[in-house]
Amino acid sequence: FEPTVLVHGGAGDIADSGIPLKKLGVKRAARRGYEALIKSGSVLDAVEGAVNSLEEDVNFNAGNGSVLTWDGDVEMDASIMNGATLEAGCVSLARDIINPISLARRIMETTRHRYIAGEGAMNIAMESENFKILQKGALVTEAAQKSLENYKASLNRTRSKRESQIYGSPGTVGAVAIDACGNVAAATSTGGITGKLSGRIGDSPILGGGTYADNETAAVSATGHGETIMRYNVVSRMLALVQHANHTAQEAAERVLNEMTQRFDETAGIIAIDHRGRLGIHFTSKRMSWAYQRGEELHFGVDAGEDQLEIVGEPRVPPL
Amino acid sequence: FEPTVLVHGGAGDIADSGIPLKKLGVKRAARRGYEALIKSGSVLDAVEGAVNSLEEDVNFNAGNGSVLTWDGDVEMDASIMNGATLEAGCVSLARDIINPISLARRIMETTRHRYIAGEGAMNIAMESENFKILQKGALVTEAAQKSLENYKASLNRTRSKRESQIYGSPGTVGAVAIDACGNVAAATSTGGITGKLSGRIGDSPILGGGTYADNETAAVSATGHGETIMRYNVVSRMLALVQHANHTAQEAAERVLNEMTQRFDETAGIIAIDHRGRLGIHFTSKRMSWAYQRGEELHFGVDAGEDQLEIVGEPRVPPL
């Protein structure tokens, strides 16, 4: 297998003016994840590092830059999964930390639970030196406030458009990675959906909903209308096609997302790496930002069919 | 299809002395669910009614009788799903109400979200006249307090036994139902696991983890070691076998649970009704209480291979 790190920066109606910063962000994240993979050899480090990069970037809806609840707060979901062991960590209603994906990993590695939400999750963060607990409101950006205002104003107008169009603010982030031995991992992190009720949980922390990794099938991270991805069990349906119907990651992603959008009129996107190392990148939304690094090649795109290529230096393997 | 309501009262090490009350409880729940199905014609009413019966029964770990967190509180998870529409409602960290499954249904029917946790969920309950908000501690039973004491004491002794044996207190509850037209629904409700950290979420509210319903495959409710069920994505794996490998509900339940227990050394149980109306009942734990009503027949059991039969009156269909 060729070591690869593939990231997405969210599916949705990305404005033309937002494209350059989205591309910059996913390229940077793919490179950070790939560097972690080469240096530590760990697919978990790769997906965590890639997602950390996007969480720290205000141009994506995760960590800093997360969209806001109806009350104007940030409440974040994240999950991470190891395809070799099926170990996983999930977190919901995380607040005041930049890197919820690292908290999900800490839940996986230090507790006997797989999923912790709210105050209980914040207790885990506070017990660790790895997490800086920010002041309330520190993660709130002007752009997120503006989106919330626009959303509230839209409620007084027509409700004819589909939810995911009205709410906008695409930018859930995710990463999948594979190492030379075929070990895979997946990670997803999000601020959710603009104007959500406090306490709302989306698909990102749901294993089989928005995230899963299994060396025997694939590593997958989804993005899009969380309620629909969750109820349609998108990632699990995809894995079933890989396992039982001999689909590639790409074929399975296309089939499940197209079926979902046809049935429910909501859109989503997927990135995946299957058990044979094949990549899957598909979205039924207008756009999705994505990038992957494999060796010296850095591929990226935002529009359907787009696949740009840059040649970058491979990170150096540290001396033994 | 023959209308059927199948319930479980949890998989685990049920003590001999506990068997009579477990059997009484699951039989009563199956009858209440079946009566709701015949009277209203709704599989959602059926699974909600059956689960309500078990939530109100202190002999099960859901609603009244829920096990306690490390801090001695009750924090409940539940989910409900409609197999015809794939509509679903999920709730976590519910407190001070007897019927979390009804709150899950209310989230499904009155919000634009599918999953709400904690204070946000309690806000939904408080806005409705259907939910009586009890005083803090009202759901805490002496038996649950004793289980927590036993769990804490066990931490000072050996840690060699598997988690699900140490924690004991089986009793997550669930129901699946099918109507004459082949519509299915599923519901699961739980207090979780004794001594859990505050904020811990198990498999019960996870669509594809512990609960799912799809007319095209099956309705399923799982019980057992939640962390393992969640990471193994038990219900989704089962549905994949029904959809792609032509398994019956029983064959799929046996295969997935046996594989899970073999790989992770944790146990679980499943009830299911597949798209052809066939029932699946399987557990890898020592025992699981279950019952179903179909016409005048009321079947029930607790031990492996047990299938007792009582003939009961069919509820009368209300006059038009």
Order of helices and strands of chain A: EHHEEHEHHHEEEEHHHEEEEE
- CATH topology grouping of chain A: Glutamine Phosphoribosylpyrophosphate, subunit 1, domain 1
Strand percentage of chain A? 15-25%
Number of strands of chain A: 13
- Structurally, how many domains make up the residues of chain A? 1
Q: What is the CA-atom radius of gyration of chain A, in angstroms?
A: 18 Å
State the strand order across the main sheet of chain A: 4-3-2-6-5-1-11-12-13
CATH superfamily heading of chain A:
(Glycosyl)asparaginase
Distance between the termini of chain A: 22 Å
EC number (chains A, B): 3.-.-.-
Catalytic activity (chains A, B): Cleavage of a beta-linked Asp residue from the N-terminus of a polypeptide; L-asparagine + H2O = L-aspartate + NH4(+)
Site (Cleavage) (chains A, B): 171-172
Binding site for substrate (chains A, B): 200-203, 223-226
Question: Main attributes?
Answer:
homodimer; 320 residues; alpha+beta; Glutamine Phosphoribosylpyrophosphate, subunit 1, domain 1; four-stranded antiparallel beta sheet; 13 strands
